[in-house]
Design a protein that fits this description.
By secondary structure, the chain is mostly helical. It is built from 7 helices and no strands. The relative contact order is 0.15. InterPro entries: GRDP-like (IPR009836).
């Protein structure tokens, strides 16, 4: 997740909420398609999944409720899913069920742009220009940071 720049994201709550929503949809796939075999999660979904497992009681209740059964997710499952084409299966089913790309870019700049666009009424030109300016500033700060410069937000 550090490669995606989530720790420096100007909209961490937005990114986290999207990742959690995608995780819930991934679990729903397991209920909707119980005979699909092992499905391989995206990195964002896996991060939420492993974090969810840190609260075992809540995890057990939630997975049973959302996926229709308890899922004992571990590294063995992930390796098996990778070998058996679990990512391609998940990608196909996710698109089919939810009409969305399975593994969209969730780097902080894409997330910032999406968050700003959703925060304003896109019909209002002034609000849209302000949102674009915020995203542009965030990109400038990140570029300077990568160049080793200290930038005040």
């Amino acid at each position: 997740m550090s490669q995606a720049g989530w720790l420096r994201s100007p909209h961490p709550a937005f990114t986290l909420a999207r990742a959690i929503a995608r995780y819930r949809q991934f679990l729903q796939l397991r209920k909707l398609h119980p005979n699909s075999g092992e499905l391989l999660p995206t990195s964002a979904i896996e991060l939420v999944w492993r974090t969810h497992q840190c609260s075992p009681v809540r995890y057990a209740v939630s997975t049973t409720e959302i996926a229709g059964r308890f899922i004992n997710y571990d590294d063995g499952m992930a390796k098996y899913a990778a070998v058996t084409g679990g990512f391609a299966k998940a990608e196909k089913l996710y698109k089919q069920e939810f009409g969305q790309d399975y593994d969209p870019c969730m780097c902080w700049s894409c997330e910032a742009e999406l968050a700003e666009r959703q925060a304003v009424d896109s019909n209002e030109d002034e609000n849209l220009r302000r949102a674009e300016a915020k995203v542009e500033r965030a990109l400038e700060v990140e570029k300077a940071r990568k160049a080793g410069k200290v930038v005040r937000a």
